[in-house]
Amino acid sequence: MHAARSTLTFAASTALAGLAVLLLAVTVVAAPLVSGADEPPSITDRDTLVIGVNDDRPGLAMRAGDGTLKGFDIDVATYVAGQLDVAPKDVTFKPLSSDQREKALSDGKVDMVIATYSITPERKAKVTFAGPYYVAHQDILVRQGDGSIRGVRDLRGRRLCQVSGSNSWRRVTEERRVPAALVSAASYADCVKALAGGRLDAVSTDDLILAGYAAAPGSRVTVVNAPFSDERYGIGLRKGDVSGCRAVNRILTGMYQNGAAETLLDQWFATSGLNIAITVPQFEGCA
């Protein structure tokens, strides 16, 4: 009798132990699903992408006559999307103003931003940045044939464009204390028209922006190639999309190593006079 009872007790204990192991296994499998629910959605999981861009930057992102957007930023966006297995027909470009970018990302209205979006400590608190996909520099635009301006110090007493809402002029007159004669304008497009028409002596902002204007047919302006700041153009992602950031960094590395970046830069800026960088930029850490 004791032997039979012991056998039954052993069998019951074994069954309970097996059930405990099964419950533990279910718990372990289920746990990541619960914690993952709090993680932000990643661009690596998307079949379609909405990408925030500029729509008024020649050579970078500008509307063509047929209404489509064309330029270096648009081509980089298309390249990155393609490497993420998102076809061009499944990419939507959404024009954004500078002050809309962080909110558009946090609200989920765009999946990424590629729009001469300089990486700064203040922005990194709200956005996860991949890249940079290009390191631009503040430079100077002058009329073709004007050899009197070779660097920022030569802007002393010269008529320099001051665009409403831009801080580029401050890097000349305040940070470097060069007493240029500031002339107000509503946009860089207006600055370039005034420069070509002889109403200004120089325009100063990011070199890729200047190069886009200089490369336009019949522009009559050229880039000096006297850089005096770094502007690290990043690809903005929703805060916390670390896997998406790492994926984009791998794509950007390949874009430079396989020559695609050089091809695109030459396509849009070769005639501008700008000395174009074609080496892989040093990336920010994904966070």
Automatic annotation (TrEMBL):
The keyword ATP-binding does not apply. Residues 48-272 form the Solute-binding protein family 3/N-terminal domain. Keywords: Signal, Transport. Pfam families: SBP_bac_3 (PF00497). GO terms for cellular component: extracellular region; outer membrane-bounded periplasmic space. Residues 1-30 form the signal peptide. GO terms for biological process: amino acid transport. InterPro entries: Bact_solute-bind_prot3, Solute-binding_3/MltF_N. Belongs to the bacterial solute-binding protein 3 family. This is Glutamate transport system substrate-binding protein. It comes from Actinomadura meyerae.
